[in-house]
Amino acid sequence: MKILKSKRVATVDGKLVFKLSPVAAGCAVFLAMSANVYAQDSTATATTAAPQTDTAPQALDSNGQPIAKVTVTGIRRGIEAAISIKKNSNSIVEAISAEDIGKLPDATVAESISRLAGVTAQRNKNTGRASDISVRGLSPDFNGALLNGREQASSGDSRGVQFDLYPAEMLGSITIYKSPDASLVGQGIASTIDQRTVMPLDFAKRTMAASYKREKTGMHNGEQATGSGYRSSLTYIDQFADRTIGLALGAVKFTDSGAEQSQMDGWGGWTPKLTDAGAPLYNGQNVIVPGGFKTDIQRIPKKQQGVMGILQFRPNKDFLTTVDLFHSKNQDHIKLTGLEGAICGSTGPYDPSGVLSNATIVNGVATAGTCSNFKGDARNHVDDIKDTLDSWGLNSQYRNSGWTFTGDVAGSKVTHDSSRYETTAGQPGNATNLGTISWTGFDGKSNLSPTYTSSINYSDRNQVVLTDQDGWGGGLTGNPQAGYVAIGVTTDKVKSGRLSAKHDVEWGPVSSVEFGFNQTNRDKSRDQNEGNLIIPGGNPYGSAAVPGTGVVVTPQSGLPVVAWDPQGSLGTIYALLPKVDQPIQTDKNWAVSEKVSTLYAMGNLDGELFGLTYRGNFGGQYIRTKQSSQGFVVDTSNCAGSAGKPCPAYTINGEHKYNDFLPSMNLVFELPYDQVFRFGLAKTLSRGKMSDMRPGGGVSLNSSAPGGAILSGGAGNPNLEPFRAKALDLSWEKYFTVNGAKGYVAAAAFYKKLDTYILTVPKVVDFATLGLLSAKTPLPASGPNKGSTVGILTTPENGTGGNIHGIELSASLPFGMFSSYLNGFGLAVNHSVTLSSVNLLTTGLTVEDTGGVSTIPLPGLSRQVTNARLFYEAHGFQASVAARHRGNFLGSVSDFQDNEQLTFIKASTTVDFQAGYEFSSGALKGLSIIGTVQNWTNAPFVRYAADPSNVVENIKFGRVYGLQASYKF
């Protein structure tokens, strides 16, 4: 039998058998190999698949192609599978693949993908683990997040997905699309991150794997207590009925008692002169003194549970149906104990300013001294957070006569439940025997530099009681506030349906065409209830004893304070005084719905140009968006603005429709010597925060405005449209194989023109036309705006953007290419530099600790990011050391009001280490033992106020030690 091959047509003995794009064939073979790499024993050899027979049916993958066996293990397995994904993609992508079943390189998805070129992560302020992902200098909201190709819900007010909700053990690979194609639905301006689970029919045989890992957290972190926990996982993959049915099941469980963390807050670097603090002069001198401090010990017990189920049915090579289910739940119990107070100034009506004495003055700075009337607040706060993810999908594919038809329905739901209790203890508001506070070592710049002592023993329950410590509820003329409680739930639901068809053609360079329709409906809402905790009896000076006997010594100050857990205290110690003022009703209670209809068409390319073989695609998406929203309007003219005195409010609705057309093109040129040049051009969009799309708000009379009395207010914008951008991407890649090990070097450049950018800005409006005025809202009685309903509204708007551009250099180098003595050693390294012309005004933005600056850089932008991983793997042994560096950037944290605030975060470098051994023969075959150390250098999480030297918070997490045993059989 004679077999002839042409470019796209195969014949047997001169007869046409089938048409096949070589690109499609290469991708199909690659998918078969990379997916099935998990199922192979480490001793397997590369073979050619045997012909199919009636007695021994040949294993096929989900594309109907023969399964091949390959020899790769451990770290190399993950690296080489990721290299193949990158090389064979028609788009510019970065990828990471599991080293084995349930073994991504890190414990969380965010930590794994933050090692890729142009990708970085913000560490969670509470846990120290990577959570939010920035790609190419843009904030997490600019990423599209998918699971098995489907858009995912998120837990916060924004759309940025918390990747620690996806246990790494339940994922097989993650691909970051930096240049999109027309078939990619749910894309973002920065990137589209597609997480993929394993598929059971991609495995050659039944495979089971189990792992158990013990961890010690907070190690080598000074005097702080350590935590401990464990992480276990189980995966079962099998095939039935002559491989027509496949089943994959997975489960993950994680618990951690939580290590102690020291948190020090320097009050934004406020170091006033005595008169600015409201204190008298010292011997006629107006010297600089510490402004105040907040020092806490925090502990965060954590739990995570996840389960996964995938069922596939393939009665023949032309039909495949897949059902996948994914469930995950994260629970954090944040317990904080600490002390806060002004030094010579005041923090409330019950806290008089102090008098400086016994001071040492150096160049106008009181480097040491004592202030009277110190009234410290002993803080015991608890924040319980539970995030629950449920995701499901049903996908069917049918092939016939060169056509491939696909139908897909899916859903994703995230529920974010939170309850926050804040309590204060100290001396009651009418106390006359106030203590003193003394300090030494003050440098005149940072409130974190001194060491403090106090005459009051804040660990003595005879001196310190639960009370309205400083009159934060308004003092005698307001309401008592011995604490605060906030309970809320945010629910995000995404449902989608998709129909598509693909057909092989021979239209010059066009090898196939694909078109389809996708409908995505999203409903997100937030419901928040808050109020003051009061001591029953209505007395502002009321107090109650602090339960228990616990004491915590706070860091930096060294002062001991009373410690207790306020859970369950509502109704036993405290009563609730509901707080229903304007920001709570309008900013924290809303609902937004979106209906996004996407019609797309794409042609796949396969041809030659100037003697160079190329592949790629071109096409576009037409998107129709209809959004509706509901919020509240508050009559601030009748608003008391304090607990127990509600602001009159009524609901308001908004609706908006708009269209977008997003063209895209990707070209991949195959150059000599296994080089690749890529070109990508596209128009992309990222949708804004759903909380910004709420209608409603509040308006009041601003009598102190510089130009005279005028109406002013704030609101969301139900007519808000997305961020939009044009993107140009270039990439050069060189691939090679040395002694069976794969490697590559690459250089990429990108340019994004942000055509529109969502800015929160003040603008002149007629409030009468917005439905924000009530009959009782007072109008200006005098001045240029007398009787006018025109005023200033601060609201999110679609404004003009700027540009962002950068370069990315990356390499994966097996050292065996230099010498056979170095076989087994390798290095994966990347470095990116990103610049932007975008500078945002701070007006209308919630930015902590701006340091007085009027503009801020693009949120999420670090100018330089570097990642490196040095590894060794041979003869069953494996070891690696990895470092991640991220430059200074503007990130975000959740503030004490449960709102996301922008904040400056200092550059950091984290170093991780792992070493282990895998048994490849004997009774222990399939067993691997791995030891890990995370955050080896105890890199802190540091926030600053505009100037990196002006530190306002410094949190250290310590090292995390782990020992894991995994067994695959």
UniProtKB/TrEMBL annotation:
Keywords: Cell outer membrane, Membrane, Receptor, Signal. Residues 1-39 form the signal peptide. Belongs to the TonB-dependent receptor family. The keyword Signal applies. Its main location: membrane. The keyword Ubl conjugation does not apply. This is TonB-dependent receptor. It is found in: Cell outer membrane. It comes from Massilia terrae. Residues 87-188 form the TonB-dependent receptor plug domain.
